[in-house]
Amino acid sequence: MKGATLKDVAREADVSIASASRAINGLDNVAEEVRRRVLEAASKLRYVPHGGARSLVMARTNTVGVLLPDIYGEFFSEIIRGVDVAARARGLHLLVSGSHGDINEAVAAVRAMGGRVDGLLVMSPFVDSQDLAAVLPLNLPLVTIASRIGKVEQGSISIDNFGGGVKAVEHLIDQGCKTLAHISGPPSNFEAQERRRGFLEAANTALPGAEHRLFEGDFTEESGYRGAKAFLNACAQTGEPMPEGIFVANDMMAVGCLLALREAGKAVPDEVALVGFDDIPIARFASPPLSTLRVGVFDLGRRGLELLVDAMERDSLSDGEDRESGEGIVVSPELVFRDSSRRRAPPA
Q1: Sorted alphabetically, which keywords does the UniProt record give (predicted)?
Q2: I need a labelling partner for 119 at 20 to 30 A (CA). Which of 63, 102, 235, 347 fits?
Q3: pTM as predicted
Q4: How many independent structural domains does the chain possess?
């Protein structure tokens, strides 16, 4: 006698096949009432999941590919940690690669992962990332984090970088800063350019006619150090004072900026207030602790993997029935107020 199928269980429980699959596999994004109905239906029909057979039929590898711009530094370590924690909870393995800011390396990495993974989690925040869309496997579930590779139906997570730049400026002005500067990321990175655009729009609106100093960094500590040195040298040459507030496009550069200011004898925040971006773990251990825009780096990785698992479950449905639309998540950066920008006492 032919055994019950997952489709039979879904019909008996009056749910979609995707919901039945998530309940059977113990995933946490299932309503308790749905889970109860599915498990009761499975028991009634004597449904027995056959992991080996299912893997063979669907050619599953139980591995997901993760493509990041780099795998060096606290930001990407936190992304990978979030992905890994969520993957281990689901019995999945990771195949991780870095593109090193080179779109050709990203294309090569995606091609190398073909046939080895059940889905792709991609972070490719480059202006020319549309080129990557041309080589992405059409039949492979895909979720993007902070990427520009076209419409992704399975799911995407993006960051309101423009809004974060605006919040940084508003905070520095609220702390009494009358002159501002910005150390940006590279022009090839659209997230960096959005943070720069937010800075300029907010600064020009709040301080009309003022000149705002800019330095182009590359998201490394060294470039943050060079940026602060460039501001210090310009002030030494012109005799003008240092900008009272500096918004740095990520925390790694902000750490380098702090070091250069300390070496120059500039008091932070009394002479120069500083705000970073990301809130990586080292930010709270800097001296002084770094004010920053928190995006929840660990959660970016965790939520990205969870979206990908959902996409893989939808992709496993036969005949394309019961397919659900992918989710788009926009993360709004949250100001974390620490001593590096605390020029005013909080209200009583």
Answers
A1: DNA-binding, Repressor, Transcription, Transcription regulation
A2: 102
A3: 0.78
A4: 3
